[in-house]
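In response to reviewer comment 3 from the previous cycle, which asked for concrete evidence that the modeling workflow produces usable outputs, we include below a single protein chain processed end to end. The sequence was submitted unchanged, and the resulting structure tokens are shown without manual editing.
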Amino acid sequence: MKKIVLTIATLVLTLQAHAELKITDPAKGGLLFGFLATMESPQNAGDGVLLVSANVSCALHKNKQVYCMSSEGGITGEIAEELYLSFSPKSEEQFDDVTVRRGHVACASIEESGKAPRYNCF
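The workflow returned the following structure tokens.
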């Protein structure tokens, strides 16, 4: 039963997500899950799986710094860069020395009894 729920959750996330993002590192996934959870409430997918998804804008500045933002806050660093690169160049807009890409990101928190949660982002 658990495999069926995980398969369905992965399918839903894949269909929703427009990015080519695949983060399976627990630390990065946990940080991105937390960031998305500040914008949208995670939804219970059953059997210890929580799903959260949101639209995000990422800006690449002339100094090569990437900032990903929402109305609730933002993130920088390696995860922001991965997000920016995962969004389609077709979503790009130019504003002076800043290039903005937008996309949809989804993450799953998978909890099993006696183990730390696993985070996967798509």
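Strands lie at 43-46, 49-61, 66-70, 73-76, 93-95, 98-110, 118-121. We consider this sufficient to address the reviewer's concern, and the full set will be provided in the supplementary archive.
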